[in-house]
């Protein structure tokens, strides 16, 4: 046994456990309103923060010390006070921030809640479809991707598809397949009021949430339907797959169906998780995050459907291009990227 390597490994393991504890603590802090209470309030004592949040003072003190230990709150010993750092406020308290993460951490809550069912799927004793997860997964997914849709979708990604922004401004038709709770659909619909948008998903509870959001926000040019992507009706100027095509059992069949529904000059717009081209290149921190989500969420979802291609979240550009090559598209290209996403355009 190499004692130095063992010590290094154990140090890394402690770091991973600290991370897991911090995620759980941060989910708790968000749910009880601690970040909201601390946001913009400056330095406050634990009792003052508990009063603002309406929480138990002793328990709040302990949670604040955990958060101070990882640098989310700055602790002033002389004043016995805690202040939410500016950086943490952007990530944890400001929902419209481009780096907001607090709501999206519910995805990891769902991973832990669903571990027994996931283990049974790994043992081959059951499948694990998207609709079988804990309810916090669906709102967590919306919140996880919300900052990217809010700050990039209309401003950068649609304009990266040649001529598409102008086409939608003039009036057209778009279907957002795998829309989940509908944030991306509504974001596009508000930006292009002359175009009709349909949000399509096979998960009824998510569609119910999306339809309610459209009604509440009075977005008249968006509607939401439960449907099968492989049996798409209508014709469209743009067909969207936002972080969902790799989850599908038969992405090639879905891509073929989409091709037949594109209007002349129309395009498919896809958003997929960022990945490098090879497995070994993805064996790093971001890959660890993405492979974990893929093992527990994305790949079981695909295997629970007919065909079960099981692409996984780290299939990257080679995997996505292979799908559209098999579906006989005329062109496929990367048009934009962020540290967490790759955006592709495909045309018939």
Q: How are the SSEs ordered, and which strands pair?
A:
Layout: H1 3-31, H2 34-38, H3 46-53, H4 57-69, E1 73-76, E2 81-84, H5 86-92, H6 106-113, H7 115-122, H8 136-160, H9 164-170, E3 173-177, H10 183-191, E4 196-201, H11 204-216, E5 222-226, E6 236-242, H12 251-260, E7 262-273, H13 285-303, H14 316-326, E8 331-337, E9 341-347
User: In which range does the helix fraction lie?
Assistant: 40-55%
Order of helices and strands: HHHHEEHHHHHEHEHEEHEHHEE
Numbering strands along the chain, what is their spatial order in the largest sheet?
A: 5-4-3-6-7-9-8
Number of strands: 9
What share of residues are in beta strands?
Answer: 15-25%
Shape descriptor reads globular
Radius of gyration, taken over Cα atoms and rounded to an integer in Å: 22 Å
Q: What is the structural class?
A: alpha/beta
What's the tally of helices? 14
Query: Uncertain segments of ≥5 residues (pLDDT<50)?
Result: none
Look at the structure and give the mean pLDDT: 97
Distance between the termini: 58 Å
Largest sheet: 7 strands, mixed
In words, what does this structure look like?
- The protein is α/β, with parallel strands linked by helices.
- The chain has 14 helices and nine strands.
- It is globular and about 70 Å long.
- The relative contact order is 0.09.
- The mean pLDDT is 97.
